[in-house]
Specification:
heterodimer, A: Rossmann fold, Rossmann fold, 4-stranded parallel beta sheet, 11% strand, B: mainly beta, Porin, 16-stranded antiparallel β-barrel, two-stranded antiparallel ribbon
């Protein structure tokens, strides 16, 4: 009887620890985070994204295939600041995986590792559109935040797999170094944009503006998430004329009609900004992302 | 392998309960919700409609048999629903839905629609749900009226599950299977008594096909309603996903002391979403369900014993053609064996519905729907109705479920 008990306990332990030396399965809420995690975790991780870079991650739905992937994950990476509020809580609830629930090592909200802009002060109402009270969640579009994200992921991977902590740290440092030197090149390439006012479609490019020293005069959307009307486009034409604005930046998934209208009547040029890894072909990692953004801006600017 | 996983699970479950009983509470969870302290999400959603039909109010209520359907000429308060959701502690999530509506007599009605908890910590892909909840049968039955794609409940669901959908008190276990695709199996037991379990023990004095129901109560575990469901889901590509489910119910009915009811169903849901969609648009979603009921009226030993057989389907296609805008088309059929041409709950019935919905934001919606009914029991055999629907949401952000 005692022997049987020992065998049983041994079996239970061996099953629970059988994953210990396996590859860490990462499910990120966006392709940007998945790509950075891949750079940091290298051969020790299998890093995938739950959403596609071609779509706005806020409007993703909790598909069964995503539930299955979260069920098997060792680590969930999220952008945070309520970007995933419509679907991630539901996924976590359905996935039956206590490792990745908030508070555990398998749950990493990367908005905690950067300084968010546009954090709401005073009262916030839904009358103001899709305002994120906790701050604007599009922070991956500042390459300086890319370094912070990489460091935070390295720290967390080290908690999950301490044996490779030194490698994770070295990978994150190498990633940051490359990013720093590339950031200097990108800044140089976009020098012409410095101080210039532009219009963006959604309030999603303020981190990009901060990184490359241009200013955002207005948005095509009258309020975040609210479609432009004839009246709002007309008042935008006023701003374009008064401030002599020549560029409109928009993500590929936003409609084209409003930008065509503003181009026709305001003489403004539209630059499509691939906002995420995977948004356009050829953007496979975080460096590609800024290479392509800079290319788009230098061609048109 | 599965045995040992099961043992591990058992040990874990026992531990969880011991921990729970000794009130050892873990550190508070980080919040992924609005309120970081209590984690409580509170939301209110209200659904109103206005419209009318070519038939009078008494006849509309037969056609619009859903408890939350627009069912009279003029205005209807379909469903005002207060939802509370929270993580209870390290072990459970919980949800509660209270419904308020104003009935045809102008009286305010309150219903405890759902109040249940689900486990958070079971291993092996297992989850237990306990409390009062919608039975996981098909796709539509568990959906609340504000998330329906049409203004009213499908005819066959009203017929087999009653106006409020199939819901009751009980317990269910679900297993997310370790397959290469999404595969989930549900098995559950619920009380069979009450007006929300209409094909089973239902309520004393109600009638099914002219059989007046007795006050039959559960005598032992064989008098409970048992349910099973198997749901499979696949992504055919980044744009196309498919859900396919089969469901079954077995339980006693109150036409006699030993009579039973069986219901089976299958459901298919296919959704396409553009690879570069804006706010989730454009998309096309096709949702179909088929249901079949065998109802033993009176005991088999009774000379008047009869097996009532009812079946039907609905099939609806939704096209989100630009951000915020969706057009829908639904066709339905319901019928039963035998001559039931004068019984509005069992006659031959077809309905075609077309609608257009405008989601002004994630928090408000306008919809206009046209229904063309063809039903044997109607004097003219047909009826035409138009319903305008308005919905608003306050409080916590609604979930984007597939």
């Amino acid at each position: 009887m005692k022997l049987l008990y020992k065998l049983l306990v041994g079996l239970i332990i061996s099953i629970s620890s059988s994953n210990a030396s396996a590859v860490i399965r990462i499910e990120a809420s966006t392709q940007d985070l998945a790509a950075i995690a891949k750079s940091v975790g290298a051969q020790y991780v299998n890093s995938n994204s739950l959403t596609l870079g071609t779509r706005d991650p806020h409007y993703a739905v909790a598909k069964p295939s995503m539930i299955r992937r979260v069920h098997q994950a060792d680590l969930i990476l999220l952008v945070g600041a309520d970007l995933e509020i419509g679907w991630l809580p539901l996924l976590l609830k359905s996935a039956r995986n206590s490792r990745v629930l908030p508070g555990n090592n398998g749950y990493l909200d990367l908005s905690d590792s950067v300084r968010l802009m546009d954090v709401a002060t005073g009262s916030v109402s839904r009358e103001m559109g899709d305002v994120h009270e906790k701050g604007n969640p599009h922070y991956w579009l500042d390459p300086r935040n890319g370094s912070k994200i990489a460091q935070a992921i390295a720290k967390r991977l080290s908690l999950i797999e301490p044996a490779h902590a030194a490698e994770f740290k070295a990978n994150a440092d190498a990633f940051s170094n490359t990013l720093n030197s590339k950031y200097a090149e990108w800044k140089k390439a976009l020098q012409g944009l410095k101080g210039k006012p532009v219009i963006t479609y959604h309030n999603s490019l303020l981190y990009l503006a901060a990184a490359f020293d241009f200013t955002i005069a207005a948005q095509v959307e009258p309020k975040p998430g609210i479609a432009p009307s004839a009246a709002s486009l007309a008042s935008l034409l006023d701003i374009i004329k008064k401030q002599n604005i020549s560029l409109l930046l928009k993500e590929p998934y936003y409609e084209q009609r409003s930008s065509d209208y503003l181009q026709q009547h305001g003489g403004i040029k539209t630059v499509v900004i691939p906002q995420s890894v995977g948004a356009k072909e050829g953007i496979d990692n975080y460096f590609d992302l800024f290479d392509k953004i800079v290319m788009a801006l230098t061609k048109e600017g | 392998m599965y045995y040992s996983a099961f043992l591990r699970q058992l040990t874990r479950t026992v531990c969880v309960f011991i921990l729970f009983n000794s009130a050892v509470l873990h550190a508070a969870q980080n919040s992924i919700t609005n309120n970081p302290i209590s984690n409580l999400n509170i939301g209110l959603t209200a659904l109103f409609s206005a419209g009318g039909s070519t038939v009078d109010n008494a006849t509309i209520s037969d056609l619009q048999a859903g408890g939350h359907d627009p069912a009279k000429n003029g205005f209807t308060v379909q469903n005002v629903e207060l939802t509370m959701k929270a993580t209870v502690d390290n072990y459970f999530d919980a949800q509660s839905n209270f419904i308020f509506l104003i009935d045809a007599a102008g009286e305010t009605v309150v219903e405890l629609e759902e109040a249940f908890l689900t486990t958070r910590q079971l291993d092996g892909g297992l989850q237990i749900k306990a409390g009062q909840y919608f039975t996981e049968f098909g796709r539509q039955n568990v959906q609340h009226p504000h998330s329906w794609s049409f203004a009213d409940q499908p005819v066959i669901l009203s017929r087999l599950f009653g106006g409020d959908g199939l819901r009751s008190q009980g317990l269910r276990l679900s297993w997310l299977m370790p397959t290469d695709w999404f595969s989930e199996f549900f098995i559950g037991a619920q009380n069979a008594k009450g007006e929300t379990v209409s094909s089973f023990l239902n309520a004393d004095g109600e009638d099914v096909a002219g059989y007046i129901l007795t006050d039959r109560n559960a005598r032992d575990s064989s008098d409970l309603l048992y349910s099973a469901r198997w749901l499979n889901a696949f992504d055919l590509s980044d744009s196309i996903s498919i859900n396919f489910g089969i469901s079954a119910l077995q339980g006693p009915n109150a036409s006699d002391t030993d009579s039973n009811t069986k219901i089976i169903g299958s459901d298919l849901y296919i959704k396409w979403q553009a690879i570069n969609s804006q706010r989730g648009f454009p998309f096309v979603a096709w949702h179909s369900e088929f249901l079949q009921r065998d109802y033993e009226a009176l005991n088999q030993t009774d000379p008047n014993h009869q097996l009532l057989s009812d079946s039907g389907y609905f099939s609806q296609i939704l096209w989100g053609f630009k951000p915020g805008w969706v057009v829908g088309l639904r066709i339905e059929d319901a019928h039963s064996e035998g001559d039931n041409s004068s019984d509005p709950t069992r006659d031959d019935r077809q309905r075609v519905s077309a609608n257009i919905s405008w989601y002004l934001s994630e928090y408000s919606k306008l919809r206009i729907q046209y229904n063309r009914d063809e039903a044997q029991h109607l004097v003219d055999q047909t009826a035409d109705s138009i319903w305008l629907q308005l919905e608003f949401n306050m409080g916590s952000h609604a979930a984007h479920s597939f």
